[in-house]
Amino acid sequence: MAIEYTTILATIVSGAAPLIFASLGETITERGGIINLSLDGTILLSAMTGFGVAYKTGNILYGFIAAGIVGMIIAGIVAGSTLFLRVSQVAVGFVLALMCKDLAYFLGNPFSRIQGPQLSYMPIPILEKIPVIGKIFFQQNIMVYLSYILISATWFFLYKTKLGMMLRCSGENPEVAFIRGIPAEKLKFLFTLLGGFLVGVSGALYSLSVKPGWGRPQGAEGIGWIALAIVIFGGWEPLKVALGCYLFSFLQITGILLQDRFTSVPAQVFQVAPFPLMIFMLLIINFFNKKEVQEKAQTNRFLKILAKIFKASPPASLGKVFYRG
Amino acid sequence: MSNKIVTPEGIKLQKKMKRKERDEKIKKFLKPVIRTPVVIFAVFIIVTLLIVAIGVNPLEVYSLLLKGSLGSKYRIARVLNVWIPLTLCACGLLYTFSLGLWNIGIEGQVMLGAIGTTAIFKWFYPQIPAQYAIFAGFLASIIAGGVWALLAGILKTKGGVNEIFAGLGLNFVAQGLILWLIFGPWKRPGIASMSGTEPFNRELWLSTIKGFRVAPIGLVLAVVFFISTVFIFKYTRLGLFFKAIGDNPAAGTLFGISVNRYSLLAMFFAGAAAGIAGFFQTTGVYHRLIPAISSNYGYLALLVVMLANFKYWPVPFIAFFFACLNVGSIQLPMVLKIDSSLSGIIQGLSVLVFLVIYNFQKMKERKS
Description:
The complex is a heterodimer of chains A (about 325) and B (about 375). Chain A has helices at about 1-30, 40-55, 60-85, 90-105, 135, 140-160, 160-170, 175-180, 185-210, 225-235, 240-260, 265-270, 275-290, 290-300, 300-310. By secondary structure, chain A is an all-alpha fold. The longest helix of chain A has 30 residues, at about 1-30. Chain B contains 14 helices and no strands. The mean pLDDT of chain B is about 90. Chain B has one domain: Orthogonal Bundle (ABC transporter involved in vitamin B12 uptake, BtuC). The two termini of chain B are about 40 Å apart. Chain B is an all-alpha fold and about 375 residues long.
């Protein structure tokens, strides 16, 4: 039994990797105050591009780069149209989410249901020998290792570097950022592009590793919305967001395992689980953000601890764009 | 008192002002007139390039789209069957958008309407006559869709949960609910499958004109709902309040209009419209509950309203255009071996190009 458990845990870790790329990308974007709602379409279009390019060139790396660039272009459309033309972010993002999905099916038609390249396993030499942990964390493919690095790098960037602080400031209060001499618009634009790149990479990770191949449906449908939900669930903090990704991956795997028990219920029913959880989490976050509750938490120790855990607030200017005059 | 000094300069200035006013009026009128062809042209060019890029003759595609949607009586009937739920959903969204609410949950509200209707048919049908069952199903769809929308609305007003994420979450929950019902309590005798529940008794189908497979009741419902929406917005206090709060929520509060109460009311209207669309889908089109009962019409309706620039009068026409695209593209994979999602690309691209051009015009205006 012990071996089985480690296999399941290893699957959870590898299944969470693309989600980590997508939701951390979105975390960076939203911390800058821009909400990129197009994730669902971006992931599918970049999954198709990644698979197509890797198939044509025979080089997986090119696939990932091309997918990242696609993600970047879409993020660029969102950021550009909102920053320069003042189009509603939600509107553009939503339209792109639907359109890119269709575009992926349309352009990906020649690649559907063919065998293509896949990311190979690459155990880390010494670390893989560690009992249990080695099997779970260090017998994976390279992108999973990169996802570990990404978690810490995002956290370090946002909280420990000057640029990260400037980005957060631009997301919280662009007026102040502007007065302090921070190029808020440029930062927002650049980091939306970076976030888009990461989302694109996550798309390629689906078509080249987690759910290899392309088709209609590919299997990554709905993941973009889940990634958006996880960002909120994690309260816009990289470490909590990463935790949310693992939790979701865990839910997914449990769903599959439970399906063996209840064969009559389709897998999609279990996949619904994260969404009520997200709504519930939002309710809790809002509850603890209320003034009365925070005042009460000053005197009640139990509430204080809870408030500390659940306190999260979206970047104050999220969804709004600051216009200089 | 009226000792105004009329000087030639003053008269000139007045004339100039008048001219300016007139020019602005013309400009205001011309803007949408210029915008529409520009949008159509830009979308046309991009789509043509896209089709050429994948190596298909664009003329063939366009003629197939046209023939596939308006080529025969049977096809027009299918277009109308898409137009009815799409218009209903879009009209419902006009209420929520007038308050600035993003009711993405409309997709789930359609599903709940379908579930409500099916529930009445499953529980009460052989016991009560078919006409009553259909009417009860209609009411149930309104209630189910409306309540599902209110849920998102209450989460927003009481819980502070953003309506986009609440709605999105509820969509997935509704989808899960439908799948569970189809594979669980309402499964087909024998084997449950993705093809849906057992088809209803023919008595429960909305009656259609011979040889033209559209239920006239559906058309009436859509048209009546559209006209009453226009009426409410144009001639009633309620519509005025909706618009006033949407323009300035703070002023609404000052005048003693409860923003939350009107938000909930708008959500209920949208949910009810979506519920009716779900009712039509189950009794008028599929005659059973299927997993894809909402057919993405909720999301598509959001695009329709955005392309209509949140105004009511273009809604039925845009909905008709979108319906034509949806139906026309069905044949694309069979005849030309290209994916039918081309319709979605054209729809999305239209909205995207429209948003860009509209905001570009607005920005130029602001600058001048």
